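new request in #modeling-help
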Amino acid sequence: MNFDLDSIFVERGCADAPLTTRVIRAAANRVPIGYVDDARELVKPDRNARDPFGAGKRRMIIARRKTPFLMACPAGSARFACCGYLVLTLASNCPMDCSYCFLQEYLADNPAFQVYANFTDSFDELDQLIRSAPQKHFRVGTGELADSLAFDSMTGMSRDLIEFFAARENLTLEFKTKTDEIENLLAMDPRGRVLVSWTLSTDAVFRGSEHRTAPPSARIKAARAVLDAGYRVAFHFDPLIAYENAERDYVRLIDELLDTVAPKNISFISMGGLRMTPGLRTVARRRFANDPMLCGEDVLASDGRYRTFTPLRVKLFSTLAERFHKCGAEVPAYLCMETAAIHERVFGTAPSRPATIGERLASG
Amino acid sequence: MKSTEVENRIRQLAAERRLPATHLERWLAIDQPSRTRLLEITETLKLRTGQIVAAIDTLDEIAVREQVTIADILDRPDLRRTLKSAGSTPARASALIDQLRAMRFPLLRAMQSRLVLEIAALKLPRGIAVVLPHELGSDELTVSITAHSGAEFERMLASLEIKKTGLMRVIEMLGGKQ
């Protein structure tokens, strides 16, 4: 996939970093490159732009990350049954533009597409994590504040990451993506320690809401290819959007998936309903005024987010869970940002503790 | 009515009602027939500021959801009947907003009606209240007992025991079971 960039700015302190060299080589005179002492001002939104957030996505900043790379998933909360996911922030923002994306609010004040030239410093943090709990198995993902693979053909980050994780028994790396950019992955041996997960949406959601992403069928095809290359695969049905005929379309999507990837080869699936804070909803409706997917039967739920009203949302979860249940192999599944009670309604059992789920998903 | 005349009247009305600037902007951005029809209805029903805001928000979302114009929505027979009904102007205004909400959330309204009927069919004694979550935004059912003596409390508990299956059905419905 090719994504447009308007400009690339490099902090002078990062000019000689291997990542910078790769990006500049890949940009090959197609994108103007500037050098600055401090990129902090460039990270901020351009208030004169018609769409400051959209403009930020096309302004790549290569800078040094000064805060820790590793953190707990920001979606986690004691209110929800969580999955114990750890997030490695190696980049911030995404060249794709999904109408429902939480980054529109989360990164509103710093929307530039930042890539951290010192990303290999995160390896020290990960080694420290392993040392702190040598008996545990951790699932660490790079796809929370950015798509894990969207610019991989430019940055080549995946190669360094795979090499690092392949050598560590109690870490599992999760690349989370909506692209089919897997060329670098196919050239590496993950030794079973790298998982690639795709967010899967129906064609209707893809066409209406997931701008510049790969079509769902291309994502499934890419999953098959990385599976054959020795990677584990997983799928996120998140956000599930309860539009008219959604149940039918999601079941067809699962059928298409299971025709290509056998259930026994799916490490896990996750499901989450469309959820938007009032602030996100306002921004999303302003940026994508004609997207019907943003105008579902969403009500203000007790956690302060707009969600599809509960019976309809839970019915959709249950339909998908049932479809996987019928496929013959037990596919591990969890819900994202839902309560333990909803988990029990959908799966018939109470969820385990986040750390336990995290470890189970990590170790496969 | 000429386009400029409509715009002037909308601006005047917005100033009188202190309509938020964002909503005035959105009203003026609507296609000409829709903008005009909304103005006529606002004037006829003397919509209050909050009602104008609700109407603009709800109509916009219905239009996007159903891929129709706001004028198309306002010309639907149900709404026209409300506009021409015999009730007072404030009552018709309130009914209009309620109908727009029902159009915006058809499945939610249907589900709420079914749940209300289920609860009514239980014929619970006075003193036991079953409260559905606001706009079905959660799966929590609240059952409260108001009693003034131990004997009364015991009678109510016994009644709840008898109605247990029905109440459980309501809870299951809140969790998406048909």
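bot summary: The longest helix of chain B spans residues 49-66.
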